[in-house]
Design a protein that fits this description.
10 helices, elongated
Length: 139
């Protein structure tokens, strides 16, 4: 499909059509941005799996639709401020590694951060990534 067709689907397509372009890595960011405003939670979640969603789009989404912060925090383009607000044991290694790269963590700080994450998970502590990072720095 062309970008014009994708735009038409994003605005007025069927559920199946929207889901197909949301999942496609060939869908342009401009189309995905429109789809992030869809009323169907499943369409928005499908869009949030697309690698073409930009950091700026994730920031705007979480500011206007905070119910998507947890899903947005797992995106490969999630900015550290979104990742930092998520519970530390809810995120996988890829998301946490991007956060640690952004903050410039040393090997020692990474080790301590991982220890803080393990402690939080084992004890089901409700601490955020940012809190675990601060605990790692304070250790």
């Amino acid at each position: 499909m062309s970008d014009a067709d994708d735009l038409r689907v994003a605005r007025s397509g069927t559920y199946v059509e929207k889901w197909q372009i949301a999942a496609s890595p060939e869908t342009a960011s401009e189309v995905l941005e429109i789809m992030l405003h869809d009323n169907d939670v499943n369409i928005v979640r499908a869009v949030l799996q697309n690698p073409n969603v930009t950091t700026k789009m994730l920031q705007q989404l979480t500011q206007t639709r905070p119910e998507y912060v947890s899903v947005a925090a797992r995106h490969l383009n999630a900015p550290p401020e979104i990742v930092g607000d998520e519970l530390v044991w809810h995120l996988g290694p890829e998301s946490l590694n991007r956060f640690l790269e952004h903050v410039g963590a040393t090997d020692e700080q990474r080790t301590e951060f991982i220890r803080q994450r393990r402690i939080a998970g084992e004890n089901q502590l409700r601490i955020t990534v940012a809190d675990a990072w601060q605990r790692a720095l304070d250790a």
